[in-house]
Amino acid sequence: MHWEAIHKPSEHGDPMPNMGDYAAERATFTWEEARRALDGLPGGRGLNIAHEAVDRHAAGPRRGHVALRCLDRHGERTEVTYAELAETSNRFANVLDTLGVEAGERVFVLMQRTADLYAAALGSLKHRSVLCPLFAAFGPEPIRQRLELGSGRVLVTTPTLYRHKVAAIRDQLPLLRHILLAGGSTAPETAEDVRTLDLDALLARASSQYEIGRTDPEDMALLHFTSGTTGTPKGAIHVHEAVVSHHATGRIALDLHPDDVFWCTADPGWVTGTSYGIVSPLVHGVTSIIDEGDFDADRWYDVLENEGVTVWYTAPTALRMLMQAGADAAKTHDLSRLRFVASVGEPLNPEVVVWGQETLGLAIHDNWWQTETGGIMVANYACMDIRPGSMGRPLPGIEAAVLIRDDHGDVVVGGDGAAVEAAVGQQGELALRPGWPSMFRGYLDDTERYQSCFAGNWYLSGDLARRDEDGYFWFVGRGNDVIKSAGHLIGPFEVESTLMEHPAVAEVGVIGKPDPLCGEVVKAFVTLRAGYEANEDLRLDLLGFSRKRLGAAVAPREIAFDQHLPHTESGKIMRRVLKARELGLSAGDTSTLAAS
Ligand code: ATP
Ligand code: MG
Question: Does 56 reside within a domain?
Fold first, then answer.
């Protein structure tokens, strides 16, 4: 189906987008200039993420502005101003000093989304230890694996999480020297244990003043594990310099303005929840909503309405679930404060973009990036028309290309010079020219894998895409997920999006199923919307529906109904798990598989 472009009115509402014209910004943007928008540590002592995010606001006119508005599971609100956040993070940095933790050592944080988590995260950055946030829903084994891989020295958690997830594995982690329990007294069975400490007591004794030490922009700041969608999660290394990207992308891609109320729904255990749930909004001095609760359509609409969210950054799976909840759920809420909605993490079906326009009165701005890129790379912008189904255009300051390589790995189309244009309309590897500030500096303990991500002057993302004649990028699929059927290369996204257009379909995961004749055939696993029954008639209808739109070569040959598609904890469909189940094989690393 052809989707009409969504045009932005030439008279923009209030406020005007930060970037008024894409081409003009692209022509003048430099990372040096972007760096100058930040303070740097006083006395020329370098660049530190937490200084830019907190201290510079706490020392200026925004000190009384609300930095975090935290909602607990019952909807109870706690507000933390920039001045207060500066103090609590200072205390945490002092606690690390008192414990003898050194710069560069790894501090893991395993907590629910409460104000304590944010103070610990920012305090670790101030202290110049390396922050590694973990998702609180992880089980003991994924926690152990990551602590071991990352040589965790400190773990910050809560008594309950400690009891359920850490107590049983701590003896297997000899490098883990301190476990700090926040938000309650020390768990009874550990009271005698010198390695397990009551964080609240330590914070109460610590000074609220802290001077951040000299921080080289290239000092390691964050260790982020990837989502594990395609295999064992990798540890991506990021440095303090990344804050330049977090600031620039917050301005350009999320269009943050000083009075915004911003809600990033991702957990800090994923890169989105750190780059855009902690750093970017704070660097911009806005108010961030932190919701401890899990997804629930009514609750989320309540948060948007009651908190007066103006800019919302979320994920396709959540949007698809809101669609599934029906338009009435949205219509009963006053969402008039909302002015900009963005999405990341998975391909955003055009159906969902248009649903946003119809139901929220706002089109959804898809953007693309990865744990490795540290920040948004390709995006739809406030000032730019949206082509539903496209990830948008590269951020000013980012050079992106679609490469086609030969059997020797040499770039034959889409590389440098004249060949760039040759790739228009063709499917190839989505690649980026290295050199932006939040680019990962390596995979932890895996130099070989890191090196294999480069071809000539390009970083290879591992995703496949197409670029149209106007420079919009279109996601085709992950390298591993692309289906080769009877000589055709089929991107699962195209098939999934087509099936999404059928009124019965809420979500789809598509895989290539080995076939002796065609190599692979397309198989779709379909989740139905409420009110539809899985039966043979509907299956045949869906097969016919997709064949009519996609043609026999691309349409699914098989369709199965599945109301519980496997997702990562961060909400991505795990196609490799679907495939393993289909073939009766082991699903491999499932540490990030969400319980369904
Ligand atoms: P792993 O690397 O461990 O398999 P992962 O790639 O899912 O996991 P992340 O770094 O969290 O881990 O996700 C980045 C990937 O998510 C991208 O490479 C891409 O495949 C997908 N992605 C992100 N945003 C988009 C988008 N807007 N459209 C399509 N795909 C997207
Ligand atoms: Mg990846």
Answer: no
Query: What is the pLDDT averaged over residues 488-509?
Result: 92
Residues 497 and 518 in one domain: yes
* Distance from Cα 369 to the centre of ligand 1, integer Å: 7
Distance in Å from the first CA to the final CA of the chain: 32
Domain end residue (candidates: 220, 240, 260): 240
The pLDDT, as a whole number, for residue 486 is 83
Task: Tell me, yes or no, whether 234 and 87 share the same domain.
Answer: yes
What CATH number is attached to the domain comprising 248? 3.40.50.12780
The number of the ligand nearest the C-alpha atom of 461 reads 1
* DSSP secondary structure letters along 371-390: TTT-S--EE--TTS-B-TT-
Select from 222, 224, 225, 229 the residue to mutate for testing ligand 1; criterion: most ligand atoms less than 8 Å from CB: 229
User: Which ligand is in closest contact with the Cα of 227?
Assistant: 1
Q: Residue 12 above 60 pLDDT?
A: no
User: Alpha-carbon distance 402 to 385, whole Å?
Assistant: 22
Residue 365 lies in a domain: yes
- Residues 14, 97 share a domain: no
Q: How many CB atoms lie within 10 A of CB 34?
A: 20
Pocket test for ligand 1, best of 145, 226, 317, 493 (most atoms within 8 A of CB): 226
Atom of ligand 1 nearest to the CA of 272: 11
* CA–CA dist 346, 330 (Å, integer): 23
pLDDT in tens, 369-425: 999 999 999 999 999 999 999 999 999 999 999 998 887 778 777 776 655 666 788
Query: Do residues 593 and 574 make contact, with C-beta atoms less than 8 angstroms apart?
Result: yes
Same domain, 510 and 456: no
How many structural domains are present in the chain? Answer: 4
Beta strands in 406-554 (DSSP E): 411-413, 427-432, 442-443, 454-455, 458-467, 473-478, 483-485, 488-490, 505-515, 519-528
Question: Would you place residue 342 in the very low, low, confident or very high pLDDT band (cuts 50, 70, 90)?
Answer: very high
Q: Could you tell me the residue range of the domain that residue 345 belongs to?
A: 1-36+242-398
Average pLDDT over all residues of the chain = 93
All residues with CB under 5 Å from ion ligand 2: 226
Which pLDDT does position 10 carry in this prediction? 62
Domain assignment present for 547 = yes
Residue of minimum CA distance from atom 11 in ligand 1: 227
Do 232 and 287 fall within a single domain? Answer: no
Gyration radius of the chain over CA positions: 24
pLDDT, residue 553, reads 86
Contacts 24+ apart (CB under 8 A), 533-540: 534/561, 538/504
Of 175, 209, 240, at which residue does a domain stop? Answer: 240
What is the helix (H) or strand (E) element at residue 79, kind and residue range?
A: strand 77-81
Contacts of 61 (CB under 8 A, 6+ apart): none
Q: Given ligand 1 and candidates 135, 227, 234, which is best to mutate, with the most ligand atoms within 8 Å of its CB?
A: 227
Ligand with smallest separation from the Cα of 373: 1
Q: How many whole angstroms from 171 Cα to the centroid of ligand 2?
A: 31
- pLDDT per position as a tens digit, 132-185: 999 998 889 889 999 999 999 999 999 999 999 999 999 999 999 999 999 865
Residues 87 and 236 in one domain: yes
Residue 129 clears pLDDT 70, i.e. is over it: yes
Degrees to nearest 5, angle at CA 65 with 61 and 70: 160
